[in-house]
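Submission sheet (multi-component)
Chains listed below:
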Amino acid sequence: RLSIPTLRRLPLYYNIVRHAVDMGEQYISSSNIADVLNIDPTQVRKDIAAIGYGGKPKIGFNTKELAEYLRTFLGFDKQRNIIIVGAGNLGIALAKYEGFANQGMKIKALFDVNPNMVGAHIAGKDILSMDELESYIKDNDIKIVILTVPAKAAQNVANKLFSYGIEAVWNFAPVNISHPRNVLVWNHDLVASFVTFLQLIPGSPGA
Amino acid sequence: RLSIPTLRRLPLYYNIVRHAVDMGEQYISSSNIADVLNIDPTQVRKDIAAIGYGGKPKIGFNTKELAEYLRTFLGFDKQRNIIIVGAGNLGIALAKYEGFANQGMKIKALFDVNPNMVGAHIAGKDILSMDELESYIKDNDIKIVILTVPAKAAQNVANKLFSYGIEAVWNFAPVNISHPRNVLVWNHDLVASFVTFLQLIPGSPGA
Ligand SMILES: NC(=O)c1ccc[n+]([C@@H]2O[C@H](COP(=O)([O-])OP(=O)(O)OC[C@H]3O[C@@H](n4cnc5c(N)ncnc54)[C@H](O)[C@@H]3O)[C@@H](O)[C@H]2O)c1
Ligand SMILES: NC(=O)c1ccc[n+]([C@@H]2O[C@H](COP(=O)([O-])OP(=O)(O)OC[C@H]3O[C@@H](n4cnc5c(N)ncnc54)[C@H](O)[C@@H]3O)[C@@H](O)[C@H]2O)c1
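Outcome: structure written.
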């Protein structure tokens, strides 16, 4: 219903408006928000209207109210329990990252096949064995998984996750994971994205 | 000149075609490539034509030739020296990642302000002091930087990098870095992207 570009901007608006609340500012306008992101204020106005929030054109939006509205809309008021499968370099970096908590996301545990990792405790979370994955997912009502296993393991592990009722997988392995229609999978190839970005350097063939 | 969606697909085509070469397949068709990515073969054909490569419709593309063409087009045949600024969890995960080398990218060194990190050696690369940043960039002709410092340091560090002649910055700190027009900056807010993705789960307000 909402476009993907709008959905991309909403979390950014939330951060900006929440920052304004922290700074003690009572009101914020579309132009204020637009300036931070270097976009058109009309786009900001349209997006906020599209999610059903009205503002006073002369004064702007009440920061506390808009922050709260965005927070609820984006589901940050609900705790979402997440697990990380693949406790390697990237998995551990993500596990330590405190930025998830602001958005209502809690990384509950990590999973790995490597017996040297299993049993370790990182950033307040346990690294558990893959044997415990199915029961953990069911006991903790886990719907969302961050997948940071090597490419050759990714599809196999994903297939297990689908069979355990997972609804969304954020996949960092550089393979295109096939999945049932009712599961959301984001194949997020960081390096391919980086390469795309480098194509835009003036002088590159792609630029 | 080329659209961003096309530029996004090209590195993915390269991986697929190179894989076919490794598997000893002599030819590959647009349909073969399209199947892996679950996209329309016509799109693949158009993209490959758009970068100036012709194929034989009946037989398909010669895998070695197309791989070589894509490799050159994407600049993977040129070594691109990259540095990482901010040798924390994410910086170190990226430094250890071997996926960059396939694409002609070499992470040469990391930089940090933390004296406990400076002098360490990770994945064959030194962690150097920020005092050495300017001379290192000039001596090694560094044009591309991966920025993995905390949000509050990001703009300051970026300003230094711009003054040292850096052309492209891949920024992971969750702030929108302002930059001169002739520098390419990608503000890659991983968590905001993840949140956007979660909006698409059936049942979410955004879905
Ligand atoms: N590190 C990066 O910066 C980076 C960047 C882009 C993409 N990636 C991709 O992300 C993934 C993780 O990268 P990394 O650098 O953390 O790799 P890593 O090798 O450090 O970690 C992978 C972990 O997965 C575990 N594992 C292997 N098979 C498993 C299985 N079947 N079930 C559960 N766990 C299993 C391993 O024991 C290991 O701990 C890789 O696919 C990589 O290509 C990483
Ligand atoms: N870790 C993740 O999974 C993750 C995910 C999304 C975004 N990020 C963002 O990426 C950045 C890095 O995350 P992290 O988890 O590695 O953080 P971290 O705190 O582990 O690492 C940051 C590093 O930057 C160094 N640093 C601080 N100020 C500096 C300066 N002025 N110059 C050079 N180095 C400086 C620190 O000493 C530290 O080693 C942060 O902005 C974070 O918000 C991280």
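Remark: The domain at 80-193 of chain B is CATH 3.40.50.720 (Rossmann fold).
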